[in-house]
Structures are given as structure tokens and as C-alpha cells.
Design goal:
This protein is mostly helical. The chain has a domain of 31 residues. It is built from two helices and no strands.
């Protein structure tokens, strides 16, 4: 936020493109974290680790 303020004052007008970085990061970081956690849990279950919590539901049989 300090960078946005500094460069806006330096340019003499409000700059909005630095806000794009803030918006993109606020959307992508939680999604990436969720996906990485799911992959780690899936890999631990596939490896047969004993300390892995059970699935919340059983997958449908094909």
C-alpha cells in the first residue's frame, strides 16, 4: 500500500494498476493454498499414512 501511495504521489495522479496486483493475489493465494492442501491429503491417503483423517464421504462407485 505504501508503494501505491508513493508512486501515485510521484506521478501526480492516482495509479490504479498496482491495485490489480493486490486483487489478483487476494484471489489466487487462497485457491492455491486449498489445492495444495487437498493434494497433500490425497497423497498421504494414497501412501497409507496412519495419521491421516478419514474422508468425509465415500466416493461413488463406478
Amino acid at each position: 500500500l505504501a508503494g501505491i501511495l508513493y508512486f501515485s504521489l510521484h506521478a501526480g495522479r492516482p495509479l490504479l494498476h498496482p491495485w490489480l496486483i493486490v486483487v489478483v493475489l487476494s484471489i489466487t493465494v487462497p485457491v492455491t493454498t486449498l489445492l495444495l492442501a487437498r493434494v497433500a491429503l490425497f497423497r498421504r491417503r494414497s501412501a497409507g499414512a496412519d495419521d491421516t483423517p478419514p474422508p468425509l464421504s465415500t466416493p461413488p462407485s463406478a
